Amino acid sequence: MIDDGPQAWRLWRAATAGVPSTEGREFLLYTDAHPIGDTVDGLGPFQMFPTMADLMKTALAPRIALRVHWRDPGEAPERSKTTIKKEGSRWIALNADDEIASLLSLILGVRIRSGGRVRTFTDDEPTGRPAYAEHAMPALPVPAWNAPILPGLEDMRVPLPYVKRLLPRYPQLKAQEAVTLVRAARHYATALWVADNDPEQAWLQLVSANPAELFAETYPDAAELVRGSGGDELLAKVAKHFKGLIGASRGFLDFVEKYKPEPPSERPPTAVNRNLWDDSGALTPSSPETVTPVETRADWDNLRPTLKTIYRHRSALLHSGTPFPADLCLPPNRIDGIAAERPLGRQSSVGTTTWTAADTPIHLHTFAHLTRGALLNWWTASTPADDPCIPAVGA
Question: Does 186 share its domain with 331?
Fold first, then answer.
């Protein structure tokens, strides 16, 4: 009997246990990135094929075919109502193809969604039969700005075999760890998908991709009781004691600080002259007498104040309806072609509302880099490095 967990995780564990395949299913994964490389094997019951859809004239196209050698991992083990209440729900609202698409989005750092099944293979029909009844092409939301909130995602070239750095580690996670990871990956993937149209929703999704928030999702009633007694800081502290259930033993601040990645490989200059920019974000001449140097980088060596500020904005939106500061929902300025990591200026105003630089310490695209890197580092640390079935990270 395979333990109760996400569907793709259970299929992979069943394949490892020698459960025979009953049929094959093929799904189309849509992305506006450009996967390169050959067929990817060695992923348990899963295979991935580039579809050569780069010739299509649309940004979003079915560029990856996911083939699944389906098998029956057995019914989920029976659990008493007391056990279910104690362990929390493992519902992730994803089928196996959606689950893999979310993990690919996290690993590759690109927008990917499954459109559903398109073909079924059986012993009687080894070449497959078309199966489009459940297929629906996803649609990217219309961008709200002429420039992207998350620069560099569209048309990004990504090596598809890169997924073998981490995906083979997925079935090595415990069931609840797999649930936590997939929920976080789903939040991250959703953030990337909606950011250009609804950056505020993207902020919420990215902040939710951490253990303290996943605790709140699993135990909403208990979380509200904790919040009522001591606010979000107490909730983060309580979440630490549920490491066996939420997969990581850190609250939001500790988790990100512990697993934070290296800064982005391309960074803007440490400071620029704010008045060198016009309203369109382009460089303009300026006289030396009026220049005002401003920071362009997030403070990577001291992230805690930044994380506290973003979490405060998130709580204000959810609990009192106060929107995120305007500058955090705008496309970043570019300096020598590189996006600024934080809004420029000592303060900004819209109408009668003013925010200081401390209120807007990091742009969404930089926070997405931070979130993704922390999750990937945690995933790596949560699987045994000496397992012979797992390739070394970087291989």
Answer: no
